[in-house]
Amino acid sequence: MEENTEQKLLTRWMRMLRVVDLFAGVGGLSYGFMLAGAEILVANEKDESIAQAYKKNHPNTEMITADITKLDIPKIFNKYLGKIDIVIGGPPCQGFSQKGSRKTINDPRNFLFKYYYEVVKYLKPKYFLMENVPNLLTTEKGLFRKEIEKLFGDIGYSLDCDVLNAAFFGVPQVRRRAMILGKQGNQILRLPKARNAMVTIDEAISDLQYLESGEGEEISPYITVPNSAYQKDMRKGATELHNHVATRHSKEAIEKLKLIPVGMGKEVLPEELLTKSIYSGTWSRMIADEQSVTITTRFDTPSSGRFTHPTLNRCITVREAARIQSFPDRFIFYGNKSSQMKQVGNAVPPLLGKAVAEVIIKDFNREL
């Protein structure tokens, strides 16, 4: 074999999986793929504040800060033709998750899905990965799932669909996400199986339990040592602590929280202090030796869910929520507090993304 041919084969074998991330948010899914050894070439996010945070954490990725519905897909992505191995992302699909019978790809409320599909169709990557809410696979007796299978099947992809719980992939949080993994050709590439690598809230954030309501700075030194393997992993590469600032609760809220013992919730409160809420777990402490409930974008408020610290009289901070989402401390959140909470709460946990990416990369390398 000629030397240049050998070199070409070696280069091909060593090449990283090249990724496009649509509806990227702050980049939780991107970061998971990066941890697995992939290269994120380009991402799209329309929220300017969130896009800036993405860019700061992924400096080598081209960020397209624009509404995807306004993009000329061939013009924008032309330079990436033949250079992309996988398109990832989670297009919002509100229609199928709401009440009513119009739960289909053709529902106007699901129109953003169309743009995800058009990018896949144009770039023709070897793989695509779509993530969404679990109902995507079951609503209307699987109608939406069947439509997706047919749509992508018509352009040459075979699909595996499943609901993965992040808690079984080393994320200290019960977070169930529908994953649809497509691969060109007739061979189905299976999503990863649960690993039972359970991590508790205590293992995730117990080294940060020293702030009271209203305390903390955006940047501060570490004042404790890690006391779990997970905490050590989260601290790798970080020399200082970011985003660890406690919400300044009202005096009334703090007095109310003081009435709630460790491991308990609103069931111990006197009737006159009970308030109506659409959220489960309101005014209840997180359970230290269990996994967290799903982190949302309002984890700073006791009335928005079970986000009250296991032992302290406050809700969790952005950094604590990020730890529970499996973002390492070197991943920094920027912008105002509302934007930071949105960045964390809407993200795919990086360790869940990494588990899926590892399956794809193994298959990618096997076929090179």
Describe the structure.
The chain has 368 residues and is an alpha/beta fold. It has 2 domains: 15-197 and 350-367, Vaccinia Virus protein VP39 (Rossmann fold), CATH 3.40.50; 201-345, DNA Methylase, subunit A, domain 2 (DNA Methylase, Chain A, domain 2, Alpha-Beta Complex), CATH 3.90.120.10. It is 33% helix and 14% strand. It has 13 helices and 9 strands. It has helices at 3-14, 28-35, 48-57, 73-77, 94-97, 111-123, 139-153, 201-205, 229-235, 251-258, 318-324, 337-345, 350-367, and strands at 18-22, 39-44, 62-64, 86-89, 127-132, 157-165, 176-184, 216-220, 241-245. It has a 7-stranded mixed β-sheet with strand order 3-2-1-4-5-7-6, with helices on both faces. A two-stranded antiparallel sheet has the order 8-9. β1, α2 and β2 (39-44) form a beta-alpha-beta unit. The longest helix has 18 residues, at 350-367.
Characteristics of this structure?
seven-stranded mixed sheet; 368 residues; alpha/beta; 2 domains; globular; Rossmann fold; 33% helix; 13 helices
Write a brief caption for the model.
The chain has 13 helices and nine strands. By secondary structure, the protein is α/β, with parallel strands linked by helices.
